[in-house]
Each structure stands twice: as C-alpha cells, then as structure tokens.
Amino acid sequence: MLLTTERLRIVPLTPRQLGLWLHDIRALGKELDCRCTAGSPRGDFRRIVEGQYALAAADPVNHLFHTFWFLILRDGGAVAGSACFKGAADADGRVEIGYGLEKAFEKQGYMTEAVRALCAWAKQQPGVRQITAETDPDNHASQRVLQRAGFHPAEADATRWWSL
C-alpha cells in the first residue's frame, strides 16, 4: 500500500515496521528507503506509537486505521512527518485524523498535501462517511492545514473540532 502525491510518498507502516520505528530506526529507514532524521519517537509521542502498535497488531483487518503513515519526500527521501487515523470508523462512520511535521518541513505545504491524499483514501474505504480532526485553539498552522484540505469547523470547547 502506498499513496503518492506530487512531492510525497505516503507509506503506512506495518505492525512490524511500527516496532522497528520504536526499536531499530536504522533498519526501518533501510527498509523504506528513507532518512528518518527525527529518530525513534520519545516521551508522550512514544506512548502513542506504542498504543497504535498494539492496536495494529491486534486488528490486522483495520491496521491501516491504527498505524502511522510516513510522509517521505520523493526528492531526497527524508521523512517530513507522519499522520495517522485514530482507529477504524465508528458506528456513525467517523474516523479521526492526526498528524505532525518535522520543524524543517513546516510552511511548505507538505502536510496539506498529505492530509488531502489521506482523506481521499479514507473516504473510499467501506464504512467511512466523515473525517474529523481536533486542534488546540491556538494552533493556527494546523487549522490552516485543515481549511486548505476542505475541513470546516464542527464544534469548539477546550479544543476545536473539524469535519470533512
């Protein structure tokens, strides 16, 4: 499985590759033919990846909704960031997308490009009727990504919710 855009290869990690991301970043880079400049996940993000790893391994049918997708530059092979869906579609057909970009690749349109491609893929999957995203109220960069990808504000409380 691979999604491609004008500037990116968007690669979903298999459960085994999620394990490599956590424990052997060099082997993962070699396997995906990319440069993982950020290294293995740390801190809170590491715990999130570990959780996704467990879910992907336990639910192989829906592993694409439990894994991380690497955003790899087609020119140069650097991993610019990653994105994920936070589980398979719920009873109402909703999936939530999350994403993060390495600092060096910000403000170049990579994340908007990736979110558009991932959402187009998700909308084609059985049972998916809506894609949501959550942002902090002061995360204007992430909000611009969602707006450019076609999302609209859905609700606001302590965070802002978006819908496509």
Describe the protein in words.
The chain has 164 residues and is α+β, with helices and mostly antiparallel strands. It is 34% helix and 26% strand. It is built from five helices and eight strands. Strands 1-2-3-4-5-6-8-7 form an eight-stranded mixed β-sheet, covered by helices on one side. Strand 1 and strand 2 form a beta hairpin. It is globular, with a radius of gyration of 15 Å. It starts with a strand and ends with a strand. The mean pLDDT is 93.
Q: Calculate the terminal CA-CA distance, rounded to whole Å.
A: 23 Å
Give the biggest beta sheet: 8 strands, mixed
Quick one: overall form?
Answer: globular
Widest β-sheet, arrangement of strands:
1-2-3-4-5-6-8-7
User: Which regions have little confidence, pLDDT < 50, spanning 5+ residues?
Assistant: none
Work out the number of β strands: 8
Strand content: 25-35%
Rg (C-alpha, Å): 15 Å
Helix content: 25-40%
Work out the helix count.
5
- Average pLDDT number: 93
Order of helical and strand elements: EEHHHEEEHEHEE
The computed structural class is alpha+beta
Key structural traits:
alpha+beta, 164 residues
In short:
The chain has 5 helices and 8 strands. The protein is an alpha+beta fold and 164 residues long.
Topology:
Layout: E1 3-4, E2 8-12, H1 15-23, H2 25-32, H3 43-58, E3 68-73, E4 79-85, E5 94-101, H4 110-123, E6 130-135, H5 140-148, E7 152-156, E8 160-163
